[in-house]
Amino acid sequence: MKTYETVIGLEVHVELATKTKIFCGCSTAFGGAPNTHTCPVCTGMPGSLPVLNKQVVEYALKAGVAANCKIHRYCKFDRKNYFYPDNPQNYQISQLYLPICYEGSVEIETSAGKRKVRIHEMHMEEDAGKLIHDEWEDCSLVDYNRSGVPLIEIVSEPDMRSAEEVIAYLEKLRFMMQYLGISDCKLQEGSMRADVNLSVREAGTKELGTRTEMKNLNSFKAIARAIEGERERQIELLEEGKPVIQETRRWDDNKEYSYAMRSKEDAKDYRYFPDPDIPPVHISDEWIRRIREEQPQLREEKMDWYQKKLGLSSYDAGILTESRHLAELFEEVSALYGDPKKTANWFMGEVLRLVKDKGMEPEEVRFTPSHMAELLRMVDKKEVSPQNARKVFEEIFQKDINPVLYIEENGLKIIEDVKILTDTLQKVLEENPGPLEELLSGKEKVFGFFVGQMMRELKGKASPEAVRKALAEEIAKRKSETVPMD
Ligand code: ADP
Ligand code: MG
Ligand code: ZN
């Protein structure tokens, strides 16, 4: 068999996190009773007129600037005509001739190193409504709440060669949008949707093969499986001497096979023409300059900074920046406390563990940074034991309590009283004569057992170091007392 190369280009739809829709004042909130976030504009009533939401242009510019795009200073909207029940105007307002952003690129990181994926364009458009097929009642219902929600469609050049690269590219876009604060990009909720265009060609050849477009991919796993499945299907056709037909296919992730949906339509099928209801938008240099100046630190820059300036490992830097919100919280605690590495350890250990245990999103974590910094300082000053500090932190995490007051009120302050320590030690040794004998005869493993017993007895309110020291001294003393005489 010949060797084949896979060629992939992506069309990614990203729902923008504006409060209101692109051409009317209706809410973009997800959910809501069907058809409650609607008005004459977004239900396509005759005579209604769209008014462009400036925030959509602002967000599209942010995305374009971050992806190194050129900007069309004079940008227009076009009508893409097609009939479908979820599209009440019978056309979608989109951009064909002068998309707001064009000719950009992003860098992706794969196991084989860095690669560049060129962006052909990013354009603004409105989302369609949602059809709900009710099999029980044998009818279809339509909900226009999503109709008119703003989207940017990001069209890549056919620069990707594997599922790994596709996923790296999608991750890249997702982090970019999240850090810019313009979309949450959730594949599962549909705020990020990817159509995969795929063709194969004999390795070494230059010409592109005929492509198919796959829709209905709502997880990274499904995307990876769809790419593998479609690649195999196309290679099989070519090996049998049959042509690949340019068409839109629907990936069925359960059956792991794609099905032809419709033959691929061309731009001419849509009879695009400039939308006469929306005046062109002029984008000033001043506007673009402001966007550039206001651009927040993106994930790669943060990761770089964490490693070079804060001394964290690349692994920790990667995990801590997976959510911009958590990264910023980490930075605030670290700045207040002064030790980035120790702060990072607590975030990697305690914060992320609690996020997982409570089934939360990292974005939902809320506590006062100084509360955590204060607790870490108390651990350093040995005012609270590490074990109890973890319990106190859980209270901070859940109720944002003040650790100083909480430790005071709950009697968790470390016992520094030497008498209590030695009394407890005597008691524990007395209660466990067997293990004591083992320890005295040199079985070092039993040491940990006694430390545990002590900590339990003292309810964790002792520093483990102090306990270990007291125990070691006591054992040494007893050993010297029992040294056999010659
Ligand atoms: P259309 O206008 O029909 O949607 P485009 O030329 O805009 O087609 O391309 C859509 C997407 O398909 C782009 O992401 C592009 O990179 C990708 N693409 C185009 N040709 C190929 C091909 N032969 N193989 C793989 N991907 C392709
Ligand atoms: Mg297209
Ligand atoms: Zn509306």
Overall description:
- This protein is α+β, with helices and mostly antiparallel strands and 486 residues long.
- Helices cover 40% and strands 20% of the residues.
- It has 15 helices and 16 strands.
- The protein has helices spanning 54-66, 163-180, 220-239, 285-294, 299-308, 314-320, 324-337, 340-357, 369-380, 386-399, 403-409, 418-431, 433-440, 446-457, 464-481; strands at 4-15, 70-71, 74-75, 78-81, 91-94, 101-110, 113-126, 130-134, 139-143, 150-156, 192-202, 212-215, 247-252, 257-263, 273-274, 281-282.
- Strands 2-6-7-10-1-11-12-13-14 form a nine-stranded mixed sheet. A three-stranded antiparallel sheet has the order 5-4-15, with no helix packed on it. A two-stranded antiparallel sheet has the order 3-16.
- Strand 8 and strand 9 (139-143) form a beta hairpin.
- The termini are far apart.
- The relative contact order is 0.09.
- The model has no long low-confidence stretch (mean pLDDT 93).
- Adenosine-5'-diphosphate binds next to strand 1, strand 10 and strand 11.
- Total helices: the number is 15
Given helix and strand content, the structural type is alpha+beta
Average pLDDT score: 93
> What characterizes the major β-sheet?
9 strands, mixed
Number of strands: 16
Q: Give the C-alpha Rg.
A: 31 Å
- What is the 3D form? elongated
Ligands bound, unique? adenosine-5'-diphosphate, magnesium ion, zinc ion
User: In percent, how helical is the residue content?
Assistant: 40-55%
Percentage beta strand? 15-25%
Enzyme class: ligase
Family: Belongs to the GatB/GatE family. GatB subfamily.
GO molecular function, one term: ATP binding
EC number: 6.3.5.-
